[in-house]
Amino acid sequence: MSQAVEEHTEVRVVTDDAAEERWEVPVDLRYDPDTAPTNVCISLPESPGAPPHDWTFSRDLLERGLRGPVNGGDVRVWPSGRVRAVVELRSERHVAVVQFDSAALTRFLRRTYAATEPVHQ
C-alpha cells in the first residue's frame, strides 16, 4: 500500500491590478497514489476567506512546469525567475494565478515519488 502525501505552503495571488497588493494564501498540495497515481491536487481558496477549491491535474505537468512553460488545458505552469513558479488555474467562472516557491513544489514532488517507490524487504 502506498502512502498519501500532503504539503502545506503559502502562495502569492497574482492580479492584473498594479495598485492591488499581492496577498498570500495557504494552500494544500496532495497526492494519493492509491486513488490517482498520476495526478496531484492543489487546494486553494478562490478569494481570501473563501472555502478552498480543489484543482487536480497531472503530476508530470507540475514537474515539467518547473523547468519551462507547459499548458495542460485548464492548468498552466511556468518558472518565474530562479526561485518561483507560476500556476494558472482556469475554470468556467474563474482564473487564479498564483506564485509558489519552487523549493516547496520540488520538495512536494520528491515526496510523491518517494511514496510510490517499492519497499525492499
Brief rundown of the structure:
The chain is 18% helix and 45% strand.
List the helices and strands and how they pair.
Layout: E1 5-13, E2 23-31, E3 39-45, E4 52-58, H1 59-65, E5 70-71, E6 75-80, E7 84-90, E8 95-101, H2 102-116
Antiparallel strand pairs: 1-2, 1-8, 2-3, 3-4, 5-6, 6-7, 7-8
Give a description of the structure.
With 121 residues, the protein is α+β, with helices and mostly antiparallel strands. It is 18% helix and 45% strand. The chain has a single domain (5-116), classed as Transcriptional Co-activator pc4, Chain A (Roll), CATH 2.30.31. The chain contains two helices and eight strands, in the order E-E-E-E-H-E-E-E-E-H. Strands 4-3-2-1-8-7-6-5 form an eight-stranded antiparallel sheet. A hairpin with a 3-residue loop joins strand 5 and strand 6 (75-80). The mean pLDDT is 87.
